[in-house]
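#structure-requests
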Amino acid sequence: MKKSFMTGIRLTIPICLGIVLVGISFGLLAMQTGFSAFQTVLMSAMVMAGSSQLMALGMIGQGAPIISIVIATFFVNLRHIVMSSSAMSRLQDTPVGYRMLGAFALCDESFAVFSLAEEHSFALMMGSNTAMYITWILSSALGCVLNQVIPDVVANSFGIAIYAAFLAMLLPAVNKNMRLFGLVCITALMNYLFQFIIPSSWAIILSMILGALIGVFFVELEEEEEAANE
């Protein structure tokens, strides 16, 4: 069990190195948004979802109402239901309490490590989860510290790391599927246009939902074409 746990950590360390910069950026932006260092670290410890935390920060900075922040982050995190269900289906012999603990810190990166590993054990998942969890919390805390010692112009430049992280996740998939690129452009355009008629916080939610609905249609078309080619 200990060997599997350490294997999960070892497989995740290269990914953790890339997460550090995003965590630092989150800590810096949270402090600039008005969070205290304690609130910033607590949010990372309790939520442990980088994309939704960053979205929430942006919406808080815009003065969005709490209900719109909750709804937006709910839709962003819906994928965790799918990931957790898939991962836990391979751990059916593991006690429910352990599986709930594993699902708490399961994220995109640790799910990928667990899914691609030769061994699908609870210990390996927890090793990967632990590495990601500690890295995210410590890097968020480091961002809070750096906010006190580095010039504002340098701190503000870290914001680009967030967009770089999202692009790094998006571009590989876009390169393989131009429909996905079109879907991203359509969703971005809808969000831009909706902001002229409704508050920006609700524009994000509406464009996200409509983009997901359009995406379902795109996927169905793609599956039909693949079936026809076969």
